[in-house]
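Q: Putative 2-component system sensor kinase, please. Structure only.
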Amino acid sequence: MSLRSRQIKGHSLSSPPVLGVVVRAQTYKNLLYLALTFPLGLFYFTLLVAGVPLGVRLLSVVVGLPVLIGVLVVSDRLLVFERWLACRLLDCSIPLDRDTETDDWRDYVRQPITDLGTWVGIAYLAAKFVVGVVTFVVLTVLFVLVASLLLAPLYYDSTSLGFYLTGPVEFSLSYVVQFWDGAAVITLPFTITSWQVTTLREALAVSAGGAVLGLLSLHLCNLLARVQGWLATVAIRPRPVDVELPFYSNN
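A: Structure for Putative 2-component system sensor kinase:
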């Protein structure tokens, strides 16, 4: 009986429906992963854009082939890092095949080239830049908007804080009520105009709205992180790893 009570109590405290997103550690791991998406995507994109064309141009002088192979090998190592990052921060489960370990340097070079997962992974690394740009824009807009609303009581009297339109927006909602001998139309007119925060009470209301928007933003970021975790799980295929790296663990 007491065990059941503790379980029920623990469940109610650990996973509240809406507010729990603030206290869950996974939320902030997701935010960290999203924050890293843009700089990592920019690095991957720069590596591929600089390395691949350079290798192609140098093919005529033989040097290009080692450059291209080097880009493939480095990309393969970066995919191992991406797998570790997704498993650590997003709690993803991406399998890693260790049965094909080898000490032969020729196999070390040949495996990334002949493995289909490497080429799929390179496409993933290239797409990471686009995903990173979108993520950066979403995070920046949400952070600036939520912060400006939450801090409204601190600066509402020193700036023009409010909702501004070029002119009134008028619209109406109509509802038809049927009777035995006819019908009646009920029309509700609405007018939306500009509104400026002029009192502390209004600023506090705006701040409360910012808190609600902050909660919704955290849920949106969690959803975005889950989508990126799914993308990583699909794109990063099991591959052989033959060297010990800090991100080598299967956890």
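A: Brief note, in case it's useful. Strands lie at 162-163, 169-179, 182-192, 195-196.
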